[in-house]
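Exam review. A common question shows you a sequence with its structure tokens and asks you to describe the fold in words. Practice with the pair below. Do the first one on your own.
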Amino acid sequence: MGDVLLLNPPPQGCYQFRDILFGDTPPVDVVEFPVNLASVASSLLASGCSISVLDANALQTPFDDVLTQVEQQDPDVIVIPASSTSIEPVLTDARAIREVAPDTRQVLMGLIGPSLHRRALDVVDAISIDDHEEMISDLLSRPWDPARVDGLIWSDRGRTVINPDRPHTDLDALPFPARHLFPLDLYIHYLVKQDVHYTNMVTSRGCVHRCTFCSRSFSKRREWRGRSPANVADEFQEVSERLGIREFRVIDEDFLHDRDRVLGIAREMRERDLDVNWVITARADGIDKEIAEALASAGCFRIDIGVESANPDILRSTGKGVDLDTVSSAFSTVHEAGIAAGALLIVGLPGETWESVAQSVSFAREVGSDFTIFRSILPYPDTPLHTQAVRKGWLDENGHLSRPEFTADDVKQATTWAYRTFYLDPAFMARRAARVRGGRDARHLLRSFGKFLKFYKGLG
């Protein structure tokens, strides 16, 4: 198919993670490693495609410079990551690319809701929703013919075509992400112990749960699939030994789904004596003493737990299927195993009030959360939450949830208040200081404190 450019657009384009997470306030440092794009890169290389990579997000490349490079390179195809939340800026970028490279095919890869397909296909040529490696390799390793590629979504003379589903990818058969093509020294994340040389990693796909706010809820292919313990340990080992990266974020949607697999991963990593540090996100109901101790023994130093809300009625309405007693028990179990535990909370869900926000802050304190994220609610198109918001007239002109009882401005102010109240608590500061176990922990704590001072200053 000729030359393929894998493009991660600059911050003003595709990835507005910071604005989504923190609103308009200055964030702590985040430059995400685009692991899914790197995984597609490795599969395209294996299929014989000629590829190049431009991570304009990490390089902070101005979009005008991106357009100049596209015009000069004149690739046959550009692959761009996208999601339901980033679709508008992505399409703005795609239109601009179309102006300078009208004959270049553009393919979006990411979980994009059905209601957005037509809007996207008015600009781009095709959409890959999941299992991008095989689908995009199948599409681009031969002359362009989207009709023959199972699973692909494309446009045929203005008509949206959804091809028949393709079998799920054998995850163990995929080559590891082509990290060497990316500027590895630029990726940083506040959730890991060091400021540089971190990477994201995916060990499973899918989630069978039906949280009303989650973008996975509209996917018709939610089946959970996991890589084998040996395959996971192989990637940890290869990345740490060949690339010198020892800090990992495992970004699975449900890492703890299969406890035997989790125990197997921990066992493999202990037996290989891998010197790595890693973080996971987890449901509280997947955590028990055996799991926590196994993870701790394998280098997992932090588990961020999806709490969502500490108001029982609001939590129940999310469809998460976890109660606060289970969450509280999970925090205790994680801490007893010597692992840091973080709380992930959403501000602004239906039923939210200032009192319920205060409940969430108090709960995070009570369970001893070591790092808490308060994320302003953002209803993803095609989710049950978005459908409910449309039906009740709760969406403002920016697509934010804004109920008469708790407006979008209230959500923003409450998120700011929650951060300040939680992190400026002297008891929290003392508890974090008491967890320091050596020079590395102390340096990490000081760096984190400096970042948050900057963050708080920006809150105004």
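Now try the second one, then compare your answer with the model answer below.
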Amino acid sequence: MVANQKFFKRDGVRKNTAWIHKHYKEYRGKWIVLNEGILLGNHYAI
């Protein structure tokens, strides 16, 4: 199970990184909250 947990954690990091690469211009210099490539909150909600 530990190996599977590590895989999912890495997969989430990859999804977050892809999201950041796609949306960095829109949110540059702002606070964001991501979970597995899904925006959960931003500078307006925090």
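Model answer, second protein: The radius of gyration is 12 Å. Helices lie at 2-27. Full marks require stating both points clearly.
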